[in-house]
O-acyltransferase
Amino acid sequence: MPKTKYRHVFATHSQSRQSCLTPGAPQSPSFVGFRNLMILVLVFSNLRLMIENYRKYGVLICLSCHDYSRQDVIYGLALYLSIPCQLFLAYLIELVAAQQAKSALARMKKAGEEQNTPENQAAARRSFKKIWKIVAFCHGAHATFNLTISSYIVYYHIHHPGIGTLCELHAVVVWLKACSYAFTNRDLRHALLHPDQSEPLPEIYASCPYPRNISFSNLCYFWWAPTLVYQPAYPRTDRIRWGYVAMRALEVFVLSIAIWIASAQYAAPLLQNSLEKMASLDFVSIVERVMKLSTVSLFCWLCGFFALFQSSLNGLAEIMRFADREFYEPWWNVSSVREYWTTWNKPVTNFMRRHVYSPLVGRGMPPALAQIVVFFISAVLHELLVGAPTHNMLGVAFMGMMFQIPLIVFTDMLKKVKGIRGEVAGNMIFWISFCLVGQPLGALLYFFAWHAKYGSVSKQFPQSPALHLVGR
Amino acid sequence: MPKTKYRHVFATHSQSRQSCLTPGAPQSPSFVGFRNLMILVLVFSNLRLMIENYRKYGVLICLSCHDYSRQDVIYGLALYLSIPCQLFLAYLIELVAAQQAKSALARMKKAGEEQNTPENQAAARRSFKKIWKIVAFCHGAHATFNLTISSYIVYYHIHHPGIGTLCELHAVVVWLKACSYAFTNRDLRHALLHPDQSEPLPEIYASCPYPRNISFSNLCYFWWAPTLVYQPAYPRTDRIRWGYVAMRALEVFVLSIAIWIASAQYAAPLLQNSLEKMASLDFVSIVERVMKLSTVSLFCWLCGFFALFQSSLNGLAEIMRFADREFYEPWWNVSSVREYWTTWNKPVTNFMRRHVYSPLVGRGMPPALAQIVVFFISAVLHELLVGAPTHNMLGVAFMGMMFQIPLIVFTDMLKKVKGIRGEVAGNMIFWISFCLVGQPLGALLYFFAWHAKYGSVSKQFPQSPALHLVGR
């Protein structure tokens, strides 16, 4: 027998070893493969639901099916053109106030040459306060009037909720900008009249000191800049990269198409066939519908977030050569609901911190109470943004925002639990409460209320107990 | 006017910053929150499908619905008791061979005292070869006979596929153990008769040298040890932790219940209502069914893997004080299909490497060809394990295994692509080919063939074109 190179006696088992999944195994394995598996299972199961949807409904996407009336378009265009006038009015008010300040400064200088007595200073303060009262009244009156009239038109005269949402969003954004313009210029004027060396103005404002910033071009820059916070000057980039702008525009286009397809093909039939379950208050079915809707609404929400905060605002910032592009922080990793609300929408967060939270805390309000005030204002604006275009002030968006307060308390407590588990749990609570339950449930309720208002529910389900709940 | 602590002039935008999702942003954010979201979406969407399933079918789980006949149980028990006899027969053969070897050694020693000539050595080699031919024939004949008779009984006399699978699996495991026992003892005998200082036996065998290892108690240890590779001695633990064993037993129990519920409540109706689509060769529906089945089959597969390779084998190893518990490596992260097949089932991999691959390569076969031989043997065993209990040797399991060879070539090429992407793609190809397509498709085909064979398809769908394809 020829000598073989190999013998069947090799010791396969020569040492003690643990299975890697046994708790306390020396090397805990990576589970990155399961992340890939989850992605694939999500893709596969949703592709399957798309096949199912196609077999049931065919293609529902249709360009000519959007029934917006001519009246909607006319009112929408009128609002689009008239809402910015609020800023011009604010500019005119500030122009007058600046003139007043300049002449007051001249008077003070003259008086100062004579005698800078406490009596003179008190008189100057009184004069500033008197003028601010008039200025504040003018700003407040026309801002309130503008927001009210816009909301009134959206609520009563624009039927299509899409056009209504755009108009209402525009009105709220301009309203916030006008408020910031008024507050900031008030304190700049105050700083001019009562300079305080211990509290110098930010360095960046030196390039455009008050009252030089009260100019039409400065206002127009603020009008289009991707921020809600007025500053006389902003960090700027050197030049506009048009290729970058084109890429962002392409992203907005593609994402809008994706959202449109998702809503028309997947959300619309789901909402439609949930009307019956809502009408009969069949809770298990409503839960099932919310769960099914959650995937579509989550998809639309993520696409919408990216389209608005990443693509649109970055594109606009590039055109405006606006250099501070922190429009959001990585909110998807938040471990408490509080962090979510301070990171996902930096323009509004910055506004609220600068013009609501900090002034209140600076005036001695406890921080927790100031936060509640911020959430209250935010809740009112949310209700306005959802309720006015859908013609139903249900209070669901308002309550949804106010419900964030106990949730914040709860997830803050959870975060203090030691170790990574509390953070993961907090993150999951955020996703469940916000994306998997809150949004689809809200969408169902406003959709149902819409159909209850316009009669399609009462026609289809005349005995519906839910109609009494929405007061029809 | 009292001096306020706060002024609305704080510079929110004081520096240039990038949005964190912009490509090339200074700090790429973590996306760990999206991992949590994926887990939640998977849980939510599957909970929804469970509600849908419950509404459609009610509760399908039923203890008394399993229709195994008395004949199945009797044959199953008979096989369970008779299959291990193969090991006792192998032991008797080795006992005789060991006696022969001992007397040959005595003769050689006597001859060695006279003259250790090349002629004497050649004569001894001839004698060893002659005896090995007889031993190999005996082992081969009874091993083949045993596997054939077990498969025959499972195929023709055990109707219930569950009982059939257990019997066939048992038969294959014992067959592999008997092969390893014969091969290893052959080479140990050879090493005794022709000691070669350049190739010493593994140190761990010193505690039980040949022929002392040919004992009934040593065989019984190998019979129950969680390995397919025979060694005279194994690494051992000091004591049995019964609490550990109880935990593993509990895991097996819970996971078995989970698999049972998943099959009865979710897989069974899915398979049942896919018969019609299969019968009419409606490919889009078949794809849709495969996609839906993939989640259930993946769940069952992962539970089954854990129950068998982690819980059962670790529990058995603890009872046997078997210390080498590397029954698998983290196969879920593999980036090529080759790695998967060498890591998910270490007992079989160890057997194939020691008794098939290495001997073939040692005898001069190119490694690639030796791998193909290993896959061929594995494919035959897979077909036996699936085809015999389902009474249909379709060749699908065989072809599925053989198809791994081109897939290995492809993912090996992909792995060489630079960067992490090739690894992620390889991992995804593994999951898709194996868990999301291969397994559910195989399950559908064997299920259809079963119903075609036992007439339920031809009764329900007499015009089915697919019946011709499976030859009924």
